[in-house]
Amino acid sequence: MYHSIGIICASDTELEPFFEYLTVLETIEKSLLKFYRCSFCGCEIIAVYSGVCKVNAAIAAQVLTDTFQTDAVINAGTAGGMDRSVQLFDTVVSSQCAYHDVADDILTEFHPWLKTPFFPASPLLLETAKKYSKTSPYPILFGTSVTGEQFIENSSRQKILERFSPLSADMETASIAHVCYANQIPFLSVRSITDTAEHTGIENFDKNCAAASRICAEITMGILKLLLEL
């Protein structure tokens, strides 16, 4: 069913653990990014780290669509925990995602004319992730994630929680989902938690990023393996 799947991480730290599972066949440079053409379970995987924030992530997603004709895109990496039930090193698989720094009517009244401000995950990819979660060695949570170009501080946390009730927040997911929605490409986000309401601040992100990235890579590749066995 799947001939080519894209994996987008924001940083090189988040992407690096994937190469324990992927065989790199070729490196292609496009739009100032390096796309790694890989093989996994008989499927072509195109892996890239986009750089941080929405536009960089959207560029990578559109190149995956236009240049590599990927059949699906998975956004993988790290995130900050929002809901107090989310713990360090939990992994959040987004059932839906939204921008927390964009007015709701921007995307419902104008392109891409969403029915709600939320971009949904691919039902098949989400179902596969839920199946994998039953045997995962790490906790996996399913729910809403939000995206915006800021590191969440306590002063803004409550407003975002009241508006969206998200499990996690990051700077790229919704923009990748946005591109996939516009191009009718199945999408899923898998993000492991580096910081929470109790463990706040950029210092916790820096301290926990590498370990969370390894967890995310293992979970993402487990989901992919299960998907490709269907």
Overview of the structural elements:
By secondary structure, the chain is α/β, with parallel strands linked by helices. The protein is 36% helix and 30% strand. The protein is built from 7 helices and 10 strands. It has helices spanning 12-15, 54-66, 104-109, 123-133, 154-164, 173-183, 202-228; strands spanning 4-9, 23-30, 33-40, 43-49, 72-81, 91-99, 119-120, 140-147, 168-170, 187-195.
SSE map:
Elements: E1 4-9, H1 12-15, E2 23-30, E3 33-40, E4 43-49, H2 54-66, E5 72-81, E6 91-99, H3 104-109, E7 119-120, H4 123-133, E8 140-147, H5 154-164, E9 168-170, H6 173-183, E10 187-195, H7 202-228
Overall geometry comes to globular
Beta-sheet strand percentage? 25-35%
Distance between the termini: 8 Å
Biggest pleated-sheet summary:
5 strands, mixed, barrel
Radius of gyration: 16 Å
Total number of helical segments?
A: 7
Number of strands: 10
Specify the structural class. alpha/beta
Average residue-wise pLDDT: 96
Q: Give, in spatial order, the strands making up the sheet with the most strands.
A: 5-9-8-6-10
Low-pLDDT residue spans = none
- The helix-strand sequence is EHEEEHEEHEHEHEHEH
- Proportion of helical residues: 25-40%
